[in-house]
Design goal:
three-stranded antiparallel beta sheet, Arc Repressor Mutant, subunit A, 3 strands, ArnR1-like winged helix-turn-helix domain-containing protein, mainly alpha, 4 helices, WH_DNA-bd_sf, 10% strand, ArnR1-like_HTH, elongated
Length: 98
């Protein structure tokens, strides 16, 4: 089975989820399965876009970040449903059922 790379949206959503109630950088790195260099790039980008804010050593998801995360979850859910429907259709075609 091939390893599927995570999208930028998936990584962003994982960071925002981790920071929902406050998280330090180490917690974000481990929970989002990132290295520190990549985490720093994402955290800088998320702060510039006002999706996350920093208070002391902790990062918190902003209201804008929560909205982004909700939309990302909807898109991911719809994408998964489409993938399941596509597999089901393919299985029916391969099985000879029309």
């Amino acid at each position: 089975m091939a390893i599927k790379r995570r999208s930028r949206i998936d990584i962003t959503a994982e960071i925002l989820d981790t920071a929902m109630n406050g998280a330090n950088k180490t917690q974000i790195v481990y929970n989002a399965n990132l290295n520190f260099i990549t985490a720093n790039k994402y955290l800088d980008m998320l702060m510039k876009k006002n999706l996350i804010k920093k208070k002391g050593d902790l990062y918190f998801t902003t209201e804008k970040g929560k909205t982004f995360q909700e939309l990302a979850n909807v898109l991911k859910s719809e994408d998964n449903n489409r993938d399941i429907e596509g597999r089901s259709l393919k299985a029916r075609k391969e099985g000879g059922n029309t």
